[in-house]
Predict the 3D structure of the following.
Amino acid sequence: MMTTSEKNQISVMIVNDSSYMVSLLSDLLSSEHHIKIIETARDGLEALRKLRHLSPDIILLDMEMPNMDGLSFIENVNLWPEKNLRIIVVSNYNPSNAKLILDSLELGAVDFVSIPQNEPNVVEKLKGTLLSKIEIASRSNRDVLIPKAISKLRPSKNTNTMTEGMASTVVVIGASTGAPRIISSILKDIPGDICAGFLIVQHMNKEFISTFAQRLGTISKLRVKEAVGGDKIMEGTALLAPGDMHMMVSPSRQITLDHGPKRFGVRPAVNVTMVSASEVFGANTVGVLLSGMGQDGAFGMKMIKKRCGLTLAQNESSSVVFGMAKAANDLHAVDKMVDADDLAHEIIKVVRQSV
């Protein structure tokens, strides 16, 4: 029989594929007697299975997960209105990714907690924010909370003007094991006057990135360089993410670099570049995912599709490692699987259709 104190506890489920984050969130909340962690899950699919037999008061949800991402999970939870589940997204993404946050709120999350980066007392700040939002969400009407949260995050209109030559279409290429040769093949066949800018994220030791960029520049008709902060995304130019730095697109269509936490164990992360590019370029974003191990890029491709952009992925038969492209395909985030030899042609065709 439950005691009065147990009845008054707020039950919490954590959905996150990072064992570190699950442990951190559990440790932060376990000292609070009025909160009880009742279950964890490593992705959206596992969480849905467990929710058939559970009705936690609060779900702390990650965005980037294998098998089923956070947005797809929220969409599925909406099919169970009788459970009245309150979802708080806890993510490395921050208010600069306003559209992604708005997506989660508009689908039904009640709030969003951005994990603080590079700040003193990070753990204490995160705990204070979490506790406040959990307590408010547990006793509030979710139909009131969601519109309030959305109104705070509505981005103001971008008044930045584009300078001559800046790209109105961007192609983001994500790559890892077995992909440098494919990137070389693609760039060799792309015409220099193409009406698009290119952003390339290749998982590679930082010592080799500059040399790789220089080599690409010798074989490509595009202007190829290692990206630096403030670079404008220009037509006929390819910017390569520097080693050990996330490459993001600002609303002014310039590059910002960040040494934030690794995503899926990598930095630079394809997801970071694809999500930020899709928020700025919208339907004029083309995502391309090549050979590589792991999950990076799958969520980014999904966000490009959500913004009505187009996504291509290297097929299994031409991939050295069919991992990243497979993960994106598993999330239904790929418009077309393409043989490596045909990727340049497909990219050119898609760009011409978008201008």
The chain has 13 helices and 14 strands. The two ends are 66 Å apart (CA to CA). The CA atoms of residues 161 and 252 lie 8 Å apart. The longest strand covers residues 35-41.
